[in-house]
Amino acid sequence: xxxxxxxxxxxxxxxxxxxxxxxxxxxxxxxxxxxxxxxxxxxxxxxxxxxxxxxxxxxxxxxxxxxxxxxxxxxxxxxxxxxxxxxxxxxxxxxxxxxxxxxxxxxxxxxxxxx
Amino acid sequence: xxxxxxxxxxxxxxxxxxxxxxxxxxxxxxxxxxxxxxxxxxxxxxxxxxxxxxxxxxxxxxxxxxxxxxxxxxxxxxxxxxxxxxxxxxxxxxxxxxxxxxxxxxxxxxxxxxxxxxxxxxxxxxxxxxxxxxxxxxxxxxxxxxxxxxxxxxxxxxxxxxxxxxxxxxxxxxxxxxxxxxxxxx
Lengths: 115, 186
Description:
The complex is a heterodimer.
Chain A: H1 2-19, H2 23-45, H3 61-67, H4 71-102, H5 107-112
Helix pairs in contact in A: 1-2, 2-4
Chain B: H1 2-19, H2 23-43, H3 47-68, H4 82-99, H5 120-132, H6 137-145, H7 147-168, H8 173-185
């Protein structure tokens, strides 16, 4: 059920990317897709009644192994979040430049104004 | 249970973000989705990611608001042309239908792959503290076992910021003055 809802979130992002005419809306769609994929990776690594993969001095090692959630997707998703931020910054700066050049965010208008 | 509620709220927020007419409200709703995602990460026992997500979310909101303020606040009406819209929706439906078989291959929610026998994640959990001395296993993977990935991430971030600065840079003051002089001479 969680996976299906997460997939639905991804589809909302895809819908925004393919149907909207406004550049900012398209960037927002990309951001939503990125959220959905990050969440999906974390959902895969979740263990029922799990604990965060942080060891404390009072914790038993065997119990920690039995209960801790998967640390590998977490480490990779941190990387992915930061890269997503880089993509967003680059996309927004390109959008700002396009606005200064053409005076609009509407991709149809931009197509018409070419040449 | 909490995860389901958060996911439904996120989907509602994403719908509002895509459908509202005003760009500023759209940006703010996507920020709400980001903070809900941050909460979801906390419930999924991933505190490091929740912190990172919050920092990145604040920065992203600032950048997006900078992009929308005082611009195109006249609302964009309508969608793409009818035929194009039809094709786009068709593409979304096709992606959905083609993805359905893969749901069967997923592990059940709450029973990750690492609970079955020896996996890489199990190795990290067992040996992380002894080999790297980091109590937080996520950090030990990020900064020790997979250091090169993190280095690549830093490179990508640096390159994208350089790219953004190169795109946004204004022409230098001197060049503008010279242009003015040339125009005055004409």
